[in-house]
Design brief:
It is built from 10 helices and 11 strands. It has a 7-stranded mixed beta sheet, with helices on both faces.
């Protein structure tokens, strides 16, 4: 019978994996090249402007905070990963960064005019609680925007990797129960959660983010080395399974995107935005 990794809860797995400096640094170095393409759209979606008090939740290595700072906003970033926060503080010295829990924010009510969440929704155990806390600390009329990777129903490297894991991975290696990686790409779920938290005027749009790679197996490597969820599934794989998973990803990239020598591999994102009422 398949069992979750160790006796982890979802939250424990996320905190443990993102606390690893090598995982955080690999994410920032390679995986986040696609996330970096999305960051300016999050800033635009909340109307980043000079003097705005902006809160960047699940701030990671600071890529969204960096785009907010460029607008003249006063930026606070929050994350549970000390390894990510170390990079954020070095990269964006003009922002303030706080270690904390996005579902239990250490800020007073109505402190911020905008909230961004760059790919953080699947990394907390209870995303609706995150949205409720975001609304609590926002002023009426402020805007929220969050990004989520599209699911395998579209052409995406995420689908290549997770479909290969499903086909070739060791069946005993599974994740503990938690939010789906792409749940909040679904507008019905995203809009209902936002409205329940006190937001209105929900809107969603696609960003055609991608990786430019010189190795068709790079998407496998990026998930292996620079993610919590994907890495927790890939790193324990026996060598035979790992080789089969990577080979399946290579085959999919070649089938979809030609023989190279360079590949533009899509990993599109959805941004959802709404206003605080």
């Amino acid at each position: 019978m398949a069992r979750p990794l160790e006796t982890d809860t979802f939250a424990a797995l996320e905190k443990r994996e993102w606390a690893k400096a090598d995982v955080a640094q690999s994410y920032a170095r390679v995986f986040a090249k696609a996330a970096d393409m999305v960051a300016p759209y999050l800033t635009q979606a909340v109307g980043g402007t000079k003097g705005m008090d902006a809160l960047d939740l699940c701030c990671g290595h600071g890529n969204v905070a960096a785009t907010l700072i460029k607008t003249g906003a006063r930026v606070t970033g929050l994350d549970f990963s000390p390894a990510m926060l170390d990079m954020a503080r070095a990269a964006v010295p003009g922002a303030r960064f706080v270690e904390g829990d996005a579902m239990n924010l250490p800020f007073t009510d109505a402190s911020f005019g905008a909230v961004t969440i760059g790919f953080g929704m699947p990394h907390v155990p209870d995303p609706p609680s995150l949205l409720a806390e975001a609304r609590r600390v926002m002023r009426p009329g402020g805007r929220i925007a969050f990004s989520v990777w599209c699911g395998p129903e579209v052409d995406t490297a995420l689908g290549y990797v997770f479909e290969a894991i499903a086909e070739h991975g060791a069946p005993e290696i599974i994740l503990p129960p938690g939010p789906g990686a792409n749940d909040y790409a679904d507008p019905a779920l995203a809009f209902s959660a936002l409205e329940a938290a006190g937001f209105a005027g929900c809107h969603q749009f696609l960003v055609a983010s991608e990786w430019q790679v010189e190795d068709p197996g790079a998407p496998y490597d990026f998930f292996l080395e620079g993610t919590a969820r994907g890495g927790a599934l890939l790193r324990p794989q026996p060598a035979k399974n790992a080789a089969a998973i990577r080979a399946a990803v290579v085959k999919r990239v070649l089938e979809k995107h030609g023989s190279g020598p360079r590949w533009h591999v899509p990993i599109p994102a959805v941004i959802t935005t709404a206003g605080a009422v």
